[in-house]
């Protein structure tokens, strides 16, 4: 791996230097996981609901081409302008050209992980366009000049005191004021002005309904609605996998989405957008950006079922203790670790290894993606494609040789126990990552195999 | 009925006590146990690191050693799950499939095959039960907190037969300890932090022993406990189930 490539283990080690902060981060997200459990346990048919959602999404993935064509035709008939973007760059260019056409240089945006994936803000800023994120958490990380660390709770890594300091610096609140209600009200006033003066608003899309051509945006703050309803031009960006066949299927996904995400029964706003109001332009950009490549990978295609609830992040014991930024990609956590290598195997070769394969992610996933199995499978792919360092490779080959040969194994075991007993410094030193914060197992005087020879020698 | 005893490589080398307890317990329950001496490893350390393609040697050895037995029993949920899910052989596909079907983790072999209802065991301590992920979520040794499904626990079913043993409650019933195979060294910082947090949950509830059906998790937690100078110890579940009043 080249030295410029970011590495989850290194970044997580830095995050772990402040243990009190790790504890706080872990407990905050564990609390969200508990809220999710409580909400799920109130629905006796929860597991059936997950299975149904999974099957609907399987159907979508198997018929994606037809649903997309159907959706496009319906949306056009409703008066929506539909654009297709093969990749991030095309997506960004489409947004830019729409703004340029209308002479707009300031845009308000509600939460969209797709635009994070496409690095839209950077692109527009390089072209002289100012973007203001209207989701409170996104606004906070934007003021801090950081990417979101979590797809539902973008600034979950920030303490309220740090947010108070940011607001003091950027929005002129009194120094030292970290009262959440006060800070929220300040953000509200600041954003109100933004909503009223921006002529263009961009939103994400949670669900797009092939049958009707409408799309649904879920927020708790109503910021997508505020932006879209006040702007002359509404641009909605969606990954092509966001399609669902019929409106009735929303009843399954809306019940699952927020219960899985935050433990709420439903988002405060589940807004349906169907056609532009009189005088407004409504644009919809359908983005591929390698999704069709993932669709072609048999072992990984069902990662496209994801509805971006983040339940897998909240439950992941590694995510909770390494922080979202350690994943150095727009979508962190377990789901991000199976999506990112599809975008760039070299850059994200470390992510499938940032897991103990405990399987909790697959159990909370509302659409039943076998996340931990895909993490395992990505490891196999990344090694075979040559994205894993040579030191690791040599070690593995030596280990394989030892463990597939009983003679070698016995000698190696004996030598190992001998070394640990008489020369413990050879293994018990800070260069051995096990020993840094853990004792080595005390070497027994004999292995089980040796004991068995002595005590059960009647056996062959 | 003859059972082939599969002892994980690191248990054979570092924790012979857990292996001896497994053997004695099965013998006590009337099982004819054989220990093929040439066994090594299930191959999981390589496979979980992305090198499953190098593990055919391990697969072949397991098939050669164990395909002949009625059952294969192993005191590790993780190794059993790995063999169950990944053992294969182009030369001997039938034998490979038979190994996958007849391999059992010790606890599930006791509850599901032997249907043990009584144990002559005595362990007068406060014990915290660590649910190893591969045993729990992989082999379904007990219900998982994420699912909306009826509760059950095979390890507890057995531990409840042990006299004077007191199970302590935990805040997080089934969170991973952070061992994760090579994860424990590749992601040292997070691995240790996860282990510390798991231990703190047991210790704060007064555990004198932490037990489980996977020695690897226990080895990781033991390493941290000993570094902390803690009085809390780890013990494989076989050693508790095999512990008689002296």
TrEMBL record, chain A:
Gene3D superfamilies: Alpha-helical ferredoxin, NagB/RpiA/CoA transferase-like. Keywords: 4Fe-4S, Electron transport, Iron, Iron-sulfur, Metal-binding, Repeat, Transport. The keyword Iron-sulfur applies. Residues 297-326 form the 4Fe-4S ferredoxin-type domain. One of its GO terms (biological process) is lactate metabolic process. One of its GO terms (molecular function) is metal ion binding. Residues 441-460 are annotated as: Disordered. Pfam families: Fer4_8, LUD_dom, LutB_C. This is DUF3390 domain-containing protein. The lineage of its organism: Bacteria, Pseudomonadati, Bacteroidota, Sphingobacteriia, Sphingobacteriales.
UniProtKB/TrEMBL annotation, chain B:
GO terms for cellular component: cytosol. GO terms for molecular function: oxidoreductase activity. Residues 3-84, 127-221 form the Cysteine-rich domain. InterPro entries: Cys_rich_dom. Pfam families: CCG (PF02754). This is (Fe-S)-binding protein.
């Amino acid at each position: 791996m080249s030295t410029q490539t970011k590495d989850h283990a290194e970044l997580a080690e830095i995050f772990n230097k402040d243990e009190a902060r790790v504890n706080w981060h872990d407990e905050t997200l564990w609390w969200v996981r508990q809220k999710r459990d409580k909400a799920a346990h109130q629905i006796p048919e929860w597991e059936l609901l997950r299975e149904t959602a999974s099957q609907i999404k399987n159907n979508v993935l198997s018929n994606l081409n037809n649903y997309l064509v159907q959706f496009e035709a319906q949306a056009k008939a409703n008066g929506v302008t539909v654009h297709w973007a093969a990749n991030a760059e095309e997506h960004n260019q489409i947004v830019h050209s729409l703004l340029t056409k209308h002479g707009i240089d300031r845009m308000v945006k509600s939460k969209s992980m797709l635009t994070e994936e496409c690095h839209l803000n950077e692109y527009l800023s390089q072209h002289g366009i100012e973007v203001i994120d209207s989701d409170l958490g996104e606004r906070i990380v934007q003021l801090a000049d950081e990417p979101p660390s979590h797809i539902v709770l973008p600034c979950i890594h920030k303490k309220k005191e740090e947010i108070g300091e940011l607001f003091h610096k950027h929005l002129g609140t009194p120094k030292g004021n970290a009262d959440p209600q006060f800070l929220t009200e300040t953000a509200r006033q600041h954003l109100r002005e933004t909503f009223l003066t921006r002529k263009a608003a961009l939103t994400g899309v949670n669900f797009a309904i092939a049958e009707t051509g409408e799309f649904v945006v879920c927020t708790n703050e109503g910021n997508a609605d505020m932006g879209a309803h006040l702007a002359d031009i509404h641009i909605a960006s969606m990954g092509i996998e966001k399609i669902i066949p019929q409106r009735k299927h929303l009843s399954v996904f809306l019940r699952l989405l927020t219960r899985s995400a935050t433990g709420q029964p439903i988002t405060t706003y589940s807004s349906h957008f169907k056609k532009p109001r009189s005088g407004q332009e409504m644009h919809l950009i359908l983005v591929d950006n390698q999704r069709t490549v993932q669709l072609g990978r048999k072992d990984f295609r069902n990662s496209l079922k994801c509805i971006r609830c983040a339940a897998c992040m909240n439950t992941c014991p590694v995510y909770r203790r390494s922080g979202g930024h350690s994943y150095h990609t727009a979508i962190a956590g377990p789901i991000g670790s199976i999506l990112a290598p599809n975008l760039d195997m070299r850059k994200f070769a470390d992510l499938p290894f940032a897991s103990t394969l405990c399987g909790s992610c697959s159990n909370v996933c509302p659409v039943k993606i076998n996340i931990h199995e895909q993490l395992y499978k990505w490891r196999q792919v990344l090694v075979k494609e040559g994205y894993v360092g040579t030191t690791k490779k040599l070690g593995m080959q030596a280990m394989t040789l030892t463990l597939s040969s009983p003679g070698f194994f016995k000698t190696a075991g004996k030598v190992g126990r001998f070394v640990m007993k008489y020369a413990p410094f050879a293994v018990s030193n800070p260069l051995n990552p096990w020993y840094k914060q853990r004792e080595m197992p005390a070497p027994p005087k004999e292995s089980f195999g040796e004991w068995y020879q002595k005590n059960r020698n009647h056996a062959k | 009925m003859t059972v082939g005893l599969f002892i994980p490589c690191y248990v054979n080398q570092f924790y012979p006590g857990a292996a001896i307890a497994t053997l004695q317990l099965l013998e006590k329950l009337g099982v004819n146990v054989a220990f093929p001496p040439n066994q090594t490893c299930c191959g999981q350390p390589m496979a979980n690191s992305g090198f499953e393609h190098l593990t055919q040697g391990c697969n072949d050895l397991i098939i050669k050693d164990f395909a002949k037995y009625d059952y294969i029993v192993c005191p590790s949920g993780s190794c059993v799950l790995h063999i169950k899910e990944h053992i294969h052989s182009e030369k001997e596909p039938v034998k490979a499939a038979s190994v996958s079907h007849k391999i059992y983790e010790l606890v599930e072999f006791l509850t599901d095959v032997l249907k043990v209802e009584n144990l002559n065991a005595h362990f007068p301590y406060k014990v915290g039960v660590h649910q190893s992920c591969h045993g729990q979520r992989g082999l379904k040794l007990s219900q998982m907190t994420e699912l909306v499904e009826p509760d059950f626990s095979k390890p507890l079913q057995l531990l409840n037969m042990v006299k004077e043993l007191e199970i302590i409650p935990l805040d997080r019933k089934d969170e991973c300890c952070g061992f994760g195979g090579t994860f424990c060294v590749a992601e040292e910082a997070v691995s240790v932090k996860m282990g510390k947090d798991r231990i703190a949950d047991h210790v704060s509830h007064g555990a004198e022993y932490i037990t489980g059906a996977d020695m690897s998790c226990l080895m990781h937690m033991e390493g941290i406990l000993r570094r902390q100078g803690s009085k809390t110890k780890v013990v494989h579940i076989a050693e508790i189930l095999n512990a008689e009043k002296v």
